[in-house]
Each structure stands twice: as structure tokens, then as C-alpha cells.
Specification:
alpha+beta; two-stranded antiparallel ribbon; binds zinc ion
Amino acid sequence: MLAGFIRLVFFFCLIYFAYLVLRVYRSATHPPKPASPSQIQGEMVKDDVCNTYIPKDEAIRDLRDGRERFFCSEECRRKSRAA
Ligand SMILES: [Zn+2]
């Protein structure tokens, strides 16, 4: 009776250990990804017209005088061109 119980506990410990090994193995091969890589690693650029910062991949680009400029909206780009 007691031996049966010990065997049962040992069996569950073995399963739990296997589960832990599997979890460590999976986290080692598949590292958890950051929630939003584009927001964390994304470069911020300045809109010189309204002085706000926007993510580079969301900004409106305009090449002028050989220099790339970034704007938050089409309106800001127009203002910059008018100036
Ligand atoms: Zn703007």
C-alpha cells in the first residue's frame, strides 16, 4: 500500500521533471519575442514642422536638398515645401 503510494508520487515527480525539462528546452530554442518589436526597436524621427516625433516606418518621407525629411502628415510635408 505504502510502496504503491510512493511509486505514484515518484511517477508524478518524473512527469513534472519531464515537463520542466521540456519547458526549459522550448524557451532555449524559442526565446520569447518582445511584445512589439517595431515599437521597441523602431527608430523615431522628428517632424520639423510641428516638432513631434513619429516612428520612422509611419512617417511620410520627402527628399529635399539631398536630405531625407520626415513628417507626421501630408499637411506638414506641404507646409515644409511651402516654407
Ligand atoms: Zn507634423
